[in-house]
Fold this sequence. Notes:
Layout: H1 10-32, H2 39-46, H3 50-54, H4 60-83, H5 88-105, H6 107-114, H7 125-132, H8 134-153, H9 173-185, H10 192-213, H11 225-240
Helix pairs in contact: 1-2, 1-4, 4-5, 4-6, 4-7, 5-6, 5-8, 5-10, 5-11, 8-10, 9-10, 10-11
Amino acid sequence: MESQRPRRSHAQARAEMREGILRVGGELLAKDGPAGLSVREIARGLGVASSAIYRHVASRDELLTLLLEDAYTDLADWVDAALAGASGRDALAALAGTMRAWAVNEPQRWALVYGSPVPGYVAPAERTTGPGTRVMARFLGLLAAGESAKSAAAPGDVRDAAQVPRQTAVPSPEYAALLTAGAAELGVEAEPALAAAGVLAWTSLVGLISAQVFGQLGQDFTPYGEEMLTAWVRATAETFGLN
């Protein structure tokens, strides 16, 4: 008598379906970009009826949110693993290099999180802000640690807000308040000038990686993306006192 297969629990069935949706959704995203995503195509890829998928994702927007959460989380997990035991300039190089490696390996997922917005789609902040800011929080934390170490190394050096940091002018009161609140939400203590410079450094990092991934550097310069990133790490580490 054949033994019966053990019955899956409801939680196991949901977890397996979610895994399948993410797998097929990722394949469609890599093949056709966000335009190729649909509940019907997911169902076809899994060999199930569309109604089975709708029990887990109610619309294309819900599918995009699921893929966005997954991409943000995957990238952040890569970065966390790379930063284990690293500090200072080495940590900055590990973070930047890992972001670039992930983007080169996952260009469509990079485009989903840092590329042009998908027309008609607005990511729900309550689901995407947390995973979407994990890497930036690590980044700003590194910069803040560098500035803190620099200040501790020169306790007699009195520096006002106009002197720190060097990449940006003193932010306006309204912008300063926003920067302070944003840094606090990321769990980082950073004065407004440092936070403002951190935002500029972050956007330059994302822009440099995107320029390479999307071929915006041109055929001649694209092969030198890694060298450019190394130069960015060196300049940023010097600016923020990362040794």
